[in-house]
Amino acid sequence: MRARDYVAAWSLERAVIAARDPATRDDPRLPYHQRWVWDGRSVDGADVLVRCYHGLGDTLQFARYLPALARRASRVTVEAPVRLHPLLAGIAEVSLHAFDPARPLAPRACDLEITELPGALALAPPDIPVPYLRVAPAPIPSTTVGLCHRAGDWDADRSLPEAMLAPLAARHRCLTLVAAPSALPVINPDGCPFDLAATAALVAGCAAVVTVDTMVAHLAGALGRPTWLLLKHDPDWRWDPARHDSDWYPTLRLHAQPHPGDWSPAVAAVTRELGAFIDDQGETIHGQPAQPIGARLLG
201: Cβ–Cβ under 8 A, 6 or more apart, which residues? Predict the structure, then answer.
């Protein structure tokens, strides 16, 4: 998948599925994110249940496949975290249900985990138009840059100290996309709302986004916003640290650490590129003091 040889990847996936013990499918003894669900059967004409067992970012990344699935299956039910429902509702004609880990939905004729959709449909990322998420942008000042320095707690190496983004906040009008107070001179110093619909509106209103590898990166990419992604030295399979682009999101620009823990070169590169990009937008904003956005705009 990282090498973009998708046909080979799907062939390997089917070989792995064929070698599995069917009794271990959706094994309740395992954490949800470690389970396998799809047994290789066709989705065509089937009553399909899509389970979203991974993180919010994973679900957003693979939700691009839901319209294609809905065209091929007889019925599609998506079991996803309620927080994502406002965003998923506009992607495809599917039946949305809340994912309750204590009471998952009963199996259907064909069950898949949402990350298994590329193989099940044999569709590579470039086969899906981007953007595939559409939300009304929040009424924030033009040329605003969204910043996200914090990733999930389970992989602290993806996060970087907020202070490293200070040069960006000093030069550009910025807002934070982290649901916590910010020490930077951003227009929302109290932080971003802990609400995905509100966060999506803010991202949609940004001229650009600078983020680490977390849900915000997938949200910005799915919305088609110009985005600079800061990656740790050895990111996971979906990002190639040797490249600056991504099949998954054409508007992303990738910058990985040259050495483990060394964020400075990547941040410096983003600072240069973002400066040129914002200047090309036709508005000079350098030197303007940050003006807080009122609670009305932040929802």
Answer: 135, 136, 137, 138, 299
SS3 98: strand
Binned at pLDDT 50, 70 and 90, residue 282 comes out as: low
CATH, range 145-298: 3.40.50.2000
Q: Are strands 75-80 and 95-98 parallel, antiparallel or unpaired?
A: parallel
d(Cα 155, Cα 161) in Å, to the nearest integer?
14
Q: How far, in whole angstroms, is CA 122 from its chain's centroid?
A: 21
Q: Is the pLDDT of residue 298 over 50?
A: no
In single-letter form, the type of residue at position 229 comes to L
115 secondary structure, DSSP code: G
- Please report, for residues 99, 263, 289, 292, the alpha-carbon distance to residue 174 in angstroms, rounded to integers and kept in the order given: 34, 20, 10, 10
Q: Compute φ and ψ for 21, nearest 5 degrees.
A: -80, 115
Which strands sit side by side in the sheet containing 75-80, from one edge to the other?
95-98, 75-80, 47-51, 110-113
Instruction: Report pLDDT digits (tens) over 85-136.
Output: 999 998 989 999 999 999 999 999 999 999 999 999 999 999 999 999 999 9
**Alpha carbon distance 38, 87 (integer Å):** 24
Say how far apart CA 114 and CA 8 lie, in whole Å: 20
Contact yes or no for 113/36 (Cβ under 8 A):
yes
Q: How far apart are CA 92 and CA 160, in angstroms?
A: 35
Q: What is the pLDDT of residues 140-160, one digit of tens each?
A: 998 999 999 999 888 999 999
| Residue 104 burial (10 A CB sphere; 0-12, 13-18, 19+) | middle
Tell me the two tokens of residue 102: 């204590």
Q: Which helix (H) or strand (E) holds 95?
A: strand 95-98
- Do 206 and 187 form a contact (C-beta atoms < 8 A)? no
For the chain, the domains span 6-127, 145-298
